[in-house]
Amino acid sequence: MTEMIDILKKGPVVPVIVIDNLEDAVPLASALVEGGLEVLEVTLRTPVAIDAVKAMKAALPDAIIGTGTVTNMKTLHQSLEAGADFMVSPGATNSLLRDAVSEGALLLPGAATPSEAMHLLEEGFVCQKFFPAEAAGGVAMLKSIAGPLPQITFCPTGGISNTNAANYLALSNVACVGGTWMLDKNLIKQKDWSAITELARQAKQIVS
Ligand SMILES: O=C(O)C(=O)C[C@H](O)[C@H](O)COP(=O)(O)O
């Protein structure tokens, strides 16, 4: 069975996608995969998001497609029905954590403090999203958490870009980073998919 850690390591840069137009879903995902980013997160913030996940899964069977903004059981179940490979939450509630476990869903719950991280650990979640990364203390905060809680692996997200991604990825407790910096809104509007592939390639280069 695939574990959350395997997905994070495969990233290790995860585009956090917001799909406004369903027709953009497959070309955008294909452009990112072509640029070397094969783990994608589609946020459930728009009405077409679930259909976008289904379309991406059908068109790109080898890509790992997850859902983001999974904040409750309803969106967790919608994600599972759509065939999402993993689910990401900006935070966590007890009911969401326990539902994920009982459904066998691969959930990456969010934490921003040592207490939140310890609570997730207690519920069995060793992989966590560190959100909002830059606002919550960034690299210095994660480095401090690695001292007492080295068993947690994080995917920091929020305020990450080409300029600071490498600093996060160099930390012992970081397996991947998430972000929107390679998803230039104007390029998506213009449907300039080759330019998106180039941005994905640049993002991938940070880690290679
Ligand atoms: O939708 C969610 O579930 C989130 O947690 C929010 C995302 O992680 C941020 O939108 C990342 O955005 P940037 O700071 O632009 O990289």
From TrEMBL:
GO terms for molecular function: 2-dehydro-3-deoxy-phosphogluconate aldolase activity. CDD domains: KDPG_aldolase (cd00452). It catalyses: 2-dehydro-3-deoxy-6-phospho-D-gluconate = D-glyceraldehyde 3-phosphate + pyruvate. Pathway: Carbohydrate acid metabolism; 2-dehydro-3-deoxy-D-gluconate degradation; D-glyceraldehyde 3-phosphate and pyruvate from 2-dehydro-3-deoxy-D-gluconate: step 2/2. It holds the Pfam family Aldolase. Its EC number is 4.1.2.14. Keywords: Carbohydrate metabolism, Lyase. NCBIfam families: eda, PRK05718.1. Belongs to the KHG/KDPG aldolase family. Homotrimer. This is 2-dehydro-3-deoxy-phosphogluconate aldolase. It comes from Aliikangiella marina. The lineage of its organism: Bacteria, Pseudomonadati, Pseudomonadota, Gammaproteobacteria, Oceanospirillales.
